[in-house]
Amino acid sequence: MVENPDCQIPPLLLIMLVENAFKHGAETLIDKAFIHMQLMATREQIYFEISNNFDPSESKEPGIGLNNLKRRLELLYPEKHSLITKIENETTYKASLKLNLT
Description:
The chain is α+β, with helices and mostly antiparallel strands. It contains 2 helices and 4 strands. The protein is globular, with a radius of gyration of 14 Å.
């Protein structure tokens, strides 16, 4: 749903969340991998949500991608953003990003 087609955000701001969904989910699963994305933009807010399944037996070293994204959000949208990442069940990871544009 896009109520504001002229809405702009910095280039590649969402790519880290998309890359993580592939890197830690679809790339490592052999069967039934999924990635679900939702993007909504209004005049006041952008909301992006992505979820993917993953193999809990695959342990990977934590990278710097999410930390870099958090820092970038702090610089670009101080006190005007929310990034929530969580494991919803044993095999589904979800990230939700809300940017307040006003």
